[in-house]
Write a structure and sequence with these properties.
The protein is α/β, with parallel strands linked by helices. The chain has 2 domains: 5-138, 3-Layer(aba) Sandwich (Rossmann fold); 158-212, Winged helix-like DNA-binding domain superfamily/Winged helix DNA-binding domain (Arc Repressor Mutant, subunit A, Orthogonal Bundle). 51% of the residues lie in helices and 13% in strands. It contains 10 helices and 6 strands. Strand 5, helix 5 and strand 6 (127-128) form a beta-alpha-beta unit. The termini are far apart. 35% of the residues are buried.
């Protein structure tokens, strides 16, 4: 007999979290093994219960869903993360994908769509809502991402992408200021904005993320 899909639900809204659990748990082939009210709990429960799929909200207290996804997948790379959230702005979407999420649905998705997404992610596939899938297809159809183009980290301004490219290349803030004829304070402010938008915990994490996207390459 096939083992049921072990699912962990991480969402800071108890009505949605408990409602989704009540919907999923009675279904054959799905076992809700835990519920988390914030990102820290999501990581702790994931490591303790080792679910097959995590339904992950993005905007949660203590630790956001993107960073929680990174931490879980660093320890449990086979776990499928299905993001279900209220918004689908491109910056958030691509941050979630970069963190390793394999699915992204809006909270307005119906029950059948959620169940199918869980099964798809558990099976190793990826799933995105229809409108989001079209956007992703347009980005990848434009060819490999290059520094300074909107396809790379669309949540950043052109200047922020330029600075991130130099950060990823290993330049210090003072080197970047000299290269771009900016004040050191302007560079510091831009770097702080970049870390916030990428939800990177520090400069090193931003460098890793940028290099994975193709930035920081020798000129």
């Amino acid at each position: 007999m096939t083992e049921p899909i072990a699912v962990l639900i991480a969402d800071d809204h108890p009505i949605y979290r408990d409602g989704l659990a009540s919907l999923l748990d009675p279904l054959p082939g799905i076992d809700v093994v835990g519920r988390a009210a914030d990102g820290v709990e999501a990581v702790e429960q994931a490591l303790a219960r080792r679910p097959d799929v995590i339904i992950m909200d993005l905007q949660m207290p203590r630790l956001n869903g993107i960073e929680a996804t990174r931490r879980v997948l660093a320890e449990l790379p086979a776990t499928g993360v299905l993001v279900i959230t209220m918004g689908e702005d491109e910056g958030t979407v691509f941050s979630a994908i970069t963190a390793g999420a394999r699915g992204y649905l809006l909270k307005g998705a119906d029950a059948d769509e959620v169940v199918q997404a869980i099964r798809t992610v558990h099976g190793g596939g990826v799933v995105f809502g229809a409108s989001l899938a079209q956007r992703i297809a347009r980005v990848f159809a434009s060819g490999p991402a290059v520094a300074g183009t909107p396809a790379v980290f669309p949540e950043l301004t052109e200047r922020e992408r330029e600075i991130l490219d130099l950060v990823a290349a290993g330049l210090s803030n003072s080197d970047i200021a000299a290269r771009l004829y900016l004040s050191p304070k302007t560079v510091r402010n831009n770097v702080s904005a970049i870390l916030a938008k990428l939800q990177a915990r520090d400069r090193s994490a931003a460098i890793v993320t940028a290099r994975e996207a193709g930035l920081g390459r020798p000129r």
